[in-house]
Specification:
Largest sheet: 8 strands, parallel, barrel
CATH superfamily: Aldolase class I
Number of helices: 11
Structural class: alpha/beta
Strand content: 15-25%
CATH topology: TIM Barrel
Radius of gyration: 17 Å
Strand order of the largest sheet: 1-2-3-4-5-6-7-8
Order of helices and strands: EHEHEHEHHEHHEHHEHEH
CATH class: Alpha Beta
Shape: globular
Bound molecules: phosphoenolpyruvate
Distance between the termini: 19 Å
Length: 251
């Protein structure tokens, strides 16, 4: 049996300022150091990556970015590339977050191209997948996540998943206060791992599959106790040091 390290990742979204970045990172140093068995990462807005990198020197907390353009450079006004992130010590890059898919019209094909660009820069993509409430109610969850995975597998090959993370985030649970029960989440995580195993059993056994959607300190332990839930991608609660520390402690 492969043992997968628990990974707790904070997605700060469009929040923060210099003072908040300094305080939040400072407040997270001790909880992260006290749980060396849990991998911890934070994804601040791009503008604060340099500040975060400096504050995280010699820290076990890894740095992540929330999105990357599919190009490494060129005439793409307003974008940031994985190659640039590399210079700021970024380790993880979220790709295909539901807010990117819905608010920025990112297609499965575009998400796959971004996944490839992140890997080409030597960074680890965190592929976010998940169904909407309408799809959940229509029992389409498995079909939706398989379609989202299939596009990336077709574009990048299954071997690409040996250096990647998957985040299952039901859209109806993101920022809504509604968390999937550990049992519902486990069912989908197991289905995701089985789907990957259909291509490569070694990759399937190794890949970390995070749950995301209103995770709090109080709900983390129940989720992490599930066989195929290997950590959490955390939005709202990642902005509160105590709450995020409680999630780390549950790992
Ligand atoms: C997210 O944005 O990835 C997320 C899970 O947000 P929240 O924890 O606020 O639901």
């Amino acid at each position: 049996q492969t043992t997968r390290q628990t990974l707790v990742m904070g997605n700060w979204k469009l929040n923060g300022n210099k003072a908040m970045v300094a305080k939040l990172i400072n407040d997270l140093q001790a909880p992260a150091a006290q749980h060396p068995n849990v991998a911890v990462a934070v994804c601040p807005p791009v503008l604060f990556l340099g500040q975060a990198q400096a504050l995280l020197t010699d820290s076990p907390i890894a740095l992540g970015a929330q999105d990357a353009d599919l190009h490494s450079e060129g005439a793409f006004t307003g974008e940031n590339s994985a190659v640039m992130y590399q210079e700021f010590g970024v380790h993880y890059v979220l790709v295909g977050h539901s807010e990117r898919r819905t608010l920025h019209g990112e297609s499965d094909a575009m998400v796959a191209a971004k996944f490839a660009a992140v890997q080409q820069a030597g960074l680890t993509p965190v592929l976010c997948i998940g169904e909407t409430l309408e799809q959940f109610e229509a029992n389409e969850t498995q079909a939706v996540v398989e379609r989202q995975l299939q596009e990336v597998i077709a574009h990048c090959g299954i071997a690409a998943f040996s250096k990647a993370v998957i985040a299952y985030e039901p859209v109806w649970a993101i920022g809504t206060g509604k968390t999937a029960t550990p049992e519902i989440a486990q069912q989908v995580h197991a289905a995701i791992r089985t789907f990957i195993a259909g291509f490569d059993t070694t990759v399937a056994a190794k890949i970390q599959i995070l749950y995301g959607g209103s995770v709090k300190g109080a709900s983390a332990a129940g989720l992490f106790a599930m066989a195929d839930i290997d950590g959490a991608l955390v939005g709202g609660a990642a902005l509160q040091a105590e709450e995020f520390a409680a999630i780390i402690s549950a790992g």
